[in-house]
Design brief:
secreted, Split_barrel_FMN-bd, seven-stranded antiparallel beta sheet, CREG1 protein, Pnp Oxidase, Chain A, alpha+beta, signal, glycoprotein
């Protein structure tokens, strides 16, 4: 049921009041895509035996705020445990990249865009993962649990914690002609 509600929220975001930004508004596109996504591919440098130093990508649920056209902060929040293999990588090297794509929303299927088609926009964030401080924990909790209510019932003995992706670089691919670079300042100064 929660999945159906979430899908309805994404459809409403894309259809009413959340029209996809034009290609010349790359910062707004980045905010729009992140806010429309519930998960992303997080790439770390592996610290695992046999993979040490190699790229390692894994899927993580995320949220920048409750669903809806005005709920996003632009900050990708995550709910993590030290038991997770990518989190173990991050403990050695907190640098990572995060990719989110409109391919996970109804938008690309509706327009028959392959996920690799630039018109099926995707955003690549580079930066690091940091634990949120106590003053930001309630915001992270609201952002994540509003989209991923199942998280509230995950085993307490896994020592879950709230973290955020600290963005240092942003690349937007939303049209033909190559990637667009957006600064974090440009990104945070616009609304999705």
């Amino acid at each position: 049921m929660a999945g159906v509600l979430l899908l309805c929220g994404v459809v409403l975001l894309l259809a009413a009041g959340g029209a996809i930004p034009p290609p010349e508004e790359a910062a707004r596109m980045a905010r729009f895509v992140l806010h429309g996504c519930d998960w992303g591919a997080l790439a770390t440098l592996s610290a695992q035996e046999g993979l040490r130093g190699h790229p390692f990508a894994n899927i993580f649920s995320l949220s920048d705020g409750p669903p809806g056209p005005f709920g996003g902060s632009g900050v990708p929040y995550l709910y993590l445990t030290d038991m997770e293999i990518s989190v173990q990588d991050l403990e050695i090297n907190a640098n990572a990249s995060l990719t989110v794509s409109l391919a996970q929303t109804p938008y690309c299927k509706k327009h028959r865009y392959d996920p690799q088609n630039p018109l099926c926009a995707h955003i690549i964030f580079c930066g690091s993962i940091v634990k949120v401080n106590d003053s930001e924990a309630d915001l992270a909790k609201k952002a994540l649990f509003s989209r991923h209510p199942e998280m509230e019932s995950w085993p307490k003995d896994h020592n879950w914690f709230f973290a955020k992706f600290n963005i240092t670089n942003i690349w937007v691919l939303d049209y033909f002609g190559g990637l667009k670079i957006v600064t974090p300042e440009e990104y945070y100064s616009v609304k999705p």
